[in-house]
User: Fold these one by one.
Assistant:
Number 1:
Amino acid sequence: MRRIIGLVLMGLAGFLLTTALLALVYVPGQVKKTPLDTDSYTRLTGQASALPSGEGAPVKALSHTVADGAKSDGDVVVFDTFTCLITNEDGNSPDCVDDTDPDKRLVTASTDRFATDRKTGLSVNDEKYIGDATPHEGLVNKFPFGVEKKTYPFWDGLLKRAVEANFEGEEKVNGWNTYKFVVDVVDEPAEISNGIQGTYSSLKTMWIDPRTGAIQKQTEQQKRVLESGTTVLDLDFGFTEETIKANIEDAKANDSKLGLVEKLPLIAGILGLIAAAVGFFLWNGARGAEGGDLRTRRDGDGGTPAYAGRDDLDVFGDQGDDAETRRRVDLRK
């Protein structure tokens, strides 16, 4: 029985050690990827002043990002993003309105299509993914898994190029540790509206989950100015508290999953080694016990052969007759 248990444990050890190897080499590469079923809503609020009135007003923004699973694959994910910014003076405006809105609340609305590497988060501009959409540069909607404390290229939709996102330390957001990155664009020449040239400034701060690269919180101060010096748009807004809370909850859940994946090689490896040691001990001990039983059967009285007292095994016959013994000796002579 011990031998069977030992064999079972050694088989289990092989399974656990194989699992540890896969968890170390293969599984992280499959888990640390942007999911293909992304469908997220990001809401922002703040203040803005814009032409023609130039007066400040509360604003709200919605960014809806959906992954195109049909165009995505194992390495690249394709996204479609819709963004809408409207005034929200009474605090009860819908997420978005169109340009026929009688209250003229629409400030700007746009759509964007882009593709990113599912591991690094960097833009992919192959036409088979994005078709004739505008090519992107750098990171677009998230940072890579395992964020480093360094400068990353980050896409700016108005400038149509990547700008520097500089690491500026670690900060807690709702008690959750994040990496803080800042994008600072100052008076860059740009097309600030349809066909209208001017200068563009943006101070964007992003708080990033270090493990997944997801943006947990974001604020931005943006200004668009005509060549004449007239301000077209002066915007100061950021993620709502509800959005930040939901992002942190997602980060905690994903962190637990990824943490388990990272610990799995160690846990499975240790259990595999223990199972192998115990299994070998039981199996080897059982072999020794069986050998001992065999020797006991062959040498049952502790040293005297079992057949020593049996007359029928006397190959020389009856040796009690001295005369017969002498005749046998004489014959050999």
Number 2:
Amino acid sequence: MTPTALLAAPAPATLSDALRVAGSPGFDRWQDQIRRTGGCADPIHLTGTTTTRDRATGDILHRYSTDHEPGGRLRIACGNRRASRCPACAWTYAGDTYHLIRAGLTGDTAKGTPTTVRDHPRVFTTLTAPGFGPVHNRPDHRPCRCGTHHTEDDPALGTALDPAHYDYEGAVLWNNHAGDLWRRFTIYLFRETAKHAGITQRELRERVRISYAKVAEYQKRGAIHFHAVVRFDGPDGPDSPPPPWATHDLLTNAIRTAADRARITVPAATKHDRPERLVRWGAQLDIRPIHAFGDGQDLTEQAVAAYVAKYATKAAETTGTLDRPVGNHEAAALLDVPEHTRRLISTCLDLHPAYPDRNLRAWAHMLGFRGHFSTKSRRYSTTLGALRQARADYRALQDPAAPDHTDPTTLTLAHWTYAGHGHTPGESWLAATIHRDLQAGREAARHARTELADPDGWGDPA
């Protein structure tokens, strides 16, 4: 939902429930809880207490209990990164990803990354899947092979021109092994960097560290590809400069040869009449230097961070598939799934007996992909956990009645119990309204902001 989108008029039963919630005695506190979650669509319900005592005397300094909350429950954000599940939490996740990526490009001393990292060689690279058969596309806005000028939102884009001869098994096995292929690529990248530099791998480890952050994206055809920021650092990570010979050109050449060498052999499943397969990257490999400031054509730090964050909250549902696992008896759930996507899901289910260790049935809704959507090397920049903690600390400061959990003279004891999740229909509509209003406010603030350092309006992670 966009910040300016209007909510559909609720059904009579939903409106009646919303009026009930709005008229309840604890509505103001309920509204405050939901606002603090950003309008979470599926909040977690907790019951319990926290007690803060003086370590020396044992005196109770602060006590909180959910007994006085609406319904006796505290509602916290679900934290789901998928926009299809919870737009509010997905927006927060995208903002955190933006700051994580940007900190590794521009540096941010508050987040533990020096600003000198901006001078390190870094590139933005896209690694794609190979072809599995011709698909409907828009080649430079020329007619597709089918003779049609497809519009940008044509659902036929990415689907097989000839489904009978499209390699659906190859596509599914590619997705399933893509995460392993990425790990193989990072191993070869280190080796190829040493080779191109003319030194041993031990010497390279003493002089250079290769840092990266990557995000996975589904193409319209349902194949995974990866966007990655790859950077040369000194041996101590972003705090140290790489040697002069560690250049953009060396990094680019190492990436090209590493991508060419990385491959995985999928053994034959002879009992199921499945041949041996070779999983490797596709021929389309894009590597572009990242510049601090652009002239309208250069790839800038902010553009890269925003681009990566955009895809951090998307998954296979962008291809029309389900955003949850497919049950054993859910054939009816696939009726509204596009034909091309349904074939990929069915192929996952068909291949599961041949490759039981790959757990294709569990990942059928992901078209076989079983890896993490966003990952980074240890020293690339800050962590999502650190950003979440910064936000929690900021919110704690806004509540003068809240105890200081960092005070060494106090001891906080907590007991929490899971009590459910979600909203009633009326609560769900009201939460969506809160999310819409918060987004509208952020959108207004973004337009009012004149600083170029934060073009997407995510602001401080707090």
